[in-house]
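Report of the visiting student (M.T.), summer placement. My assignment was to run the structure pipeline on a short list of targets and document each run. The first record concerns BMP family ABC transporter substrate-binding protein.
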Amino acid sequence: MSVSTHSVIRPFALAALFAATLSACGKQETPAPSPAPAPAAAPAAAGATPSTPAPAATSSDSSADKAAEGQPLKIAFAYIGPVGDGGWTFSHDNGRKAMIDALGDKVQTKFVESVPESADAERVLRGFAAEGNDIVFGTTFGYMDYMDRLSKEFPNVKFEHATGYKNGSNLATYDSRTYEGAYLAGIIAGGMTQSDVVGVVGSVPIPEVIRNINSFTLGAQSVNPNVTTKVVWVNDWFNPPKETEAATSLINSGADVLFQNTDSAAVLKTAQDQGKRAFGWNSDMTAYGPNAHLASAIIDWSPYYTKIAQDAIDGKWAAGKSWWGVKEGAIDIVSLADDIPQDLKDKVAQAKQGLQDGTLKIWEGPILKQDGTEALAAGQVADDPFLLGLQFYVKGVEGKMPGAN
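After the run finished, the structure tokens were exported:
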């Protein structure tokens, strides 16, 4: 898985690390059974899954010219997971549907789900380009090199890559500030924990996920300075059995409120089964554990997808770098539990307003690292390169980071 955009500068020194660990939410190497009922497949014009790539590439008119002639803008999506995963891919597909609702017959979409980050991805993406789609969205980091290559081969196609850092004249990148949703969830966790111990099921130890763990901790400590955070890593994006095991381990270690940076609802389900509390992630997961559910930190991709499609129709599309958050309507905290005290709900609302109007800076000093050394001095505000390269735990997060000496 808001309109002014924020320029994202990913340091190229991180490229090897990101490529090795497959950065960004929602990645999986092989399709897994869906934990949620998959939304009904739309008809071909609105998103049917193609079976085979189209033949050879042909040049196409510009998107604006096609719109002027009354032809719909053709848009294709490659998804890393199943649309019914209840999380990352589900939120992207909801964004696609919202774009259709907003633009109607001006757009024609299709998608392929559960496309692994392998040569299969290149086959699917090449098929999209070859059959004349005007815009191709790839929704996982592992598609980056394929899209970079294909963008040079198909200069008339607009490629949009989620969570990557490579750009070209017809290759744009986009991402969401998930750490803002993590911070808002942290405020609730800090006010609801009885043990002062919260737990996080981490996916892959890359800056994006570390940033979310730290921001969740900072949010919790903003209302309860005594909070400590335990982390269990599963080294996967979508693996319900591993996520369940990790959540159980955290509960056995004293955590009574759980958070996650993984894509299934397994953590919330485990909390429900064991009488603890937890959050949804990427989309509203209330239904998976209504008694355990405190709130869901969601990504809403619809503002971005709708804007990009409209820009292409208007002839205004440009290959930029976008990182959207609460301010742009891309990140939110929803479905707050009824038993959350009103004063705590008010604190969440105030923080959300602060993120919307820019008065709240989550990463403003003084902030200490886990070892007590200074990460940000008093009054110092982290810029995007700092956040994008984050490789440390803040004070209050327990345990050793994977790969640390």
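The chain has two domains: 12-177+301-328, 179-298+331-388. The longest helix spans residues 207-223. I thank the supervising group for their guidance throughout the placement.
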